[in-house]
Description:
Layout: H1 9-32, H2 40-56, H3 69-89, H4 92-96, H5 107-118, H6 120-138, H7 143-195, H8 197-211, H9 214-234, H10 239-242, E1 252-253, H11 254-258, E2 267-272, E3 277-278, H12 280-301, E4 307-313, E5 317-324, H13 333-339, H14 344-355, E6 359-364, E7 370-377, E8 394-397, H15 399-402
Parallel strand pairs: 2-4
Antiparallel strand pairs: 1-3, 2-8, 4-5, 5-7, 6-7
Helix pairs in contact: 1-2, 1-5, 2-3, 3-5, 3-6, 5-6, 5-7, 6-7, 8-9, 12-14
Amino acid sequence: MAMRMSVEQPLWRALTAYRVLTLGYAVALYAHAYGSLRHPLPGGCYMALLSVWTLGTIGRVRGAERCTRPFLAVDLTMAVGGILLTGWVDTAGRIESGAFTLPSIWTAGAVLAYALKGGWRWAAVASTAVAAADLAERGTPSRDTVHNVVLVWVAGVAIGYVVEVARASERTLARALQIEAATRERERLARDIHDGVLQVLAMVQRRGNAAGGRAAELGRLAGDQEAALRALISGAPPAGAARGEPAARGPRDLRALLAPHAASARVTLSAPGTPVLLDPEPAAELAAAVGAALDNVRRHAGEQARAWILVEDEADAVLVTVRDDGPGIPEGRLAAAADEGRLGVAQSIRGRLRDLGGSADLVSVPGQGTEVELRLPRGALGVREGGADVAPALGETNGRSAR
């Protein structure tokens, strides 16, 4: 597995080096001022403790995962404690003349650790604690003290802000890479489909047209599926638009979309006498779900089974019911079909309604047929309210009168 790249990792490595180098600098300053200190022994004990702490925690500052809040709190305490201890270890004259504190510029490393871990807000808190300790150690703030305090505060906040920007950029880059990977996978699937499924559908269409009769109908259906699949994998316009048919822009009358399903004398469509208006996409999806339900009737109930489509334009929803007089669905058959990977009801019917914010209920009694109720609430996307101003009147049509 490739190691995950991080735009902030170089900053953690730089912080590790900074802490070690500034520790050496602080020890050198202490050794140089040893003879001038008022209490050099306590200062030496602190420097020894600081050295053990810095070298023993190198692994803690190599990444954000191990740089925990308790560690940061102890680290900042080491810095603030060293600053306050300087007021007792060093002489008043040296302090007033601007001598360095015991931890010296090592203190900035504690602030930078806060900045890298938590961003500019954490850095501001740590900088404020260090500034308060510096001002307490000096007693009367001097120009140099204020200068150093402001410098540490600004540097910490600035680096913390840079880290936050870097993390946001890293997340954006990760999302872009995920999108690119998904696009490549889609292109690969499109190639596989083109090389396999589409070629088979095209062959079925050609041979069906050549054979004529019932095979020609099979060829026509294969051609329609090939066109729809090509549009799906390429993002092309729908098949109707590809053949030069104008794309629907305004509301669609659901009755007109369902009328072709009643082309057979064995399918009866009952719909309101006034338009049932839906936006194009929900209307097409609802009509496709009805088509999937009728396909199930033909496939499982036989060509001789009768089916009835009832459209109801209610005040709060559009309701479409598909009922047949077939043998019904045996108990447990839908679950078994889903386990076998046959997801016609789960995806083509229920999945479509779920994506639209509606629901699909299926009731089947062995020997008494099956009823599928598709309900699309008025609050769902694209369902037009007030499609009819009068109470709908139901009329029956079959395929010959519905064209």
